[in-house]
Amino acid sequence: MSAQGEHLSNSDLAKIFHTIADLLEIKGENIYKVLAYRRAADSLANLGGDAYEVWQAGELNQIPGVGKAIAEKLDELFRTGRLGFYEKVKTEVPVSLVDLLQVPDVGPKKAALFWGKAGVTSLPELEAAAREGKLRGLPGIGEKSEAKILAGIEALKRRSTRTPLGVAWPAAQELAAWLRNLPGVKAAEVAGSLRRMRSTVGDIDLVAAAADPKPVMEAFAHHSKVGQVLASGEAKTSVELKNTLRVQLWVHPPEQWGTVLQYATGSKEHSVHLRELAQDKKLSLSDHSIIQPDGQEVFYSEEAEVYAAIGLPWIPPEMREDRGEIQAALAGKLPRLIERGDLIAELHSHSTWSDGHSSIQAMAEAARERSLKVIAITDHSVSLGVARGLKIEDLQRQRVEIDAVQAKLGDSIRILQGTESEILADGSLDYPDEILAKLDVVIASLHSSLRQPRAVITERLLRAMRNPHVDIVGHPTGRLLPDREGADLDMDSVLKAAAETGIALEINAFPERLDLDDIYARRAAEMGIPLSINTDAHQPDHLDLVQFGVGVARRAWITPDQVINAWPTKRLLDWLKHRTKG
DNA sequence: GCCGTTTTCGGCCCGACTGTTTTCAGTCG
């Protein structure tokens, strides 16, 4: 495949089918038809390979949730770039109505109501109608609903995007720790998409176990960080923090811990699938129990017991996306996912030689404290002026310092000299080959001109990958969460090149990056491409960010053998040496 | 619209919470 293909991407297609689903739902179409479009959209978004190639191979019906009708629509999209059905639906329901669904407590029924009875076709029109008091009086809408909608629109404006994992994680852990200290609380955990380690989250989900839930939820509602309480019932409290993050807390008695933790962890798709399986066994699974065929209600204090009751082994949270994990569990083929403790090396770190904040010795000691056996200092190369990239003579002086620190620290940790070399505009690297050959680790990264056209930037990266001295491609797409998309790379070509050259692709653990993402990482691993989980640390405590990279890898079903930093030291060093020689 | 070691037609998860209601619809996860 060439890099020129300007065809529709998986995410373009997913957006189209998601919009179709929303429009049909507002229109009042059969809910299962709506769900079918939504399932197909999710399936396309989660596809590791390019749907375009699946189409070319005539295998669209292999994609889960794609049957005859949706396959025909994909065919039309790929052939003509348009979809008649989509255009027809848009003439029936204004596409701007879809924005209304983002407002909390506004779903398809209310969107249809506001459209039909108040002439609202967009979010600004909804806001105007609410301000003018035109919504109250509509069937089922009173003053409270109207005020809630206005507040919801305001909240949307304040919070334009999803919250990055790196922001939500510490906030959630702090709240969980606070809950654990409340009287009567036996356990408290972070659940939801955070526990599944999604790279961005919409809200924070917390679960607590207490014999008497009420005082726990009372206390939580009055936590100093809570801005307003959105809902509070017997089992669940939902709040918005002063910083606009939304938090939901479930509190159940300890004997129900297993079911509630499972339920609150999701994903919704995973839970739906699980309940279908339960139903096959005439079991009814809810957030607090399983009702047996004879009507008896059984509680489960451990998550593993819930899965066992449905005939499954416990499934790691990061896998719970209904991407085949339930089938794998049924077949007894769940992978042994990588864990932080498997990693023996950090292969991407910076020191004060470029834009890091700590000395080489401090970084090496920090790595040693975290039980690592190897750390590579990979400071920036000369062209990245803003990061004080190293000139060739700097590299030679840096080698002297590394040797000195190595002598001081002895065998306790191995310090490698590397570089994070710029990939220049023409795809060449920043140092001549004879210099690269002397370095222990060469990471090639894109930092500049990320907005080049697809064909140009893809070829630029491919050229760098063909340099035999390159060991690892750093943060391959260059995305920055939550808002800056990565380069418009033809990832199929990139993955194929990696498979051919044997180069490793990085899973950059820095929370703003998490790049490769879980979808591409899984695809890469399936293609036999070696992966490398690195923190890109600029100071010692950044080494702990590795947990987020491990989270991505676990979401990608990755095992220790597929990650070069989890290999035994000798195997890793041999691999690096072999690559350097080309 | 999709899907099938009980099915190619008839299913397709379940309960909490809110606001508007006098028994329920809509939304959410």
Task: Name the descriptors.
DNA polymerase, domain 1, DNA-binding, Beta Polymerase, domain 2, 582 residues, five-stranded mixed sheet, TIM Barrel, 43% helix, 3 domains, single chain, alpha/beta
Q: State the share of residues found in helices, binned by percent.
A: 40-55%
Overall CATH class of the largest domain: Alpha Beta
Total domain modules: 3
Count of helical regions: 23
The percentage of residues in β strands lies in: 5-15%
Low-pLDDT ranges: none
In the CATH hierarchy, the third-tier topology of the largest domain is known as: TIM Barrel
Describe this structure in words.
The chain has 582 residues and is α/β, with parallel strands linked by helices. The protein folds into three domains: 154 residues, Orthogonal Bundle (DNA polymerase, domain 1), CATH 1.10.150; 167 residues, Beta Polymerase, domain 2, CATH 3.30.460.10; 242 residues, Metal-dependent hydrolases (TIM Barrel), CATH 3.20.20. 43% of the residues lie in helices and 14% in strands. The chain has 23 helices and 17 strands. It has a seven-stranded parallel β-sheet with strand order 11-12-13-14-15-16-17. Strands 2-4-7-6-5 form a five-stranded mixed β-sheet, sandwiched between helices. Strands 8-9-10 form a three-stranded antiparallel β-sheet. Helix 19 links the parallel strand 14 and strand 15. Helix 1 packs parallel to helix 5, helix 1 crosses helix 6 and helix 7 crosses helix 8. The longest helix is centred in the N-terminal third of the chain and has 18 residues. It is globular. The model has no long low-confidence stretch (mean pLDDT 91). It binds one DNA strand of 29 nucleotides through helix 2, helix 4, helix 6, helix 8 and helix 13.
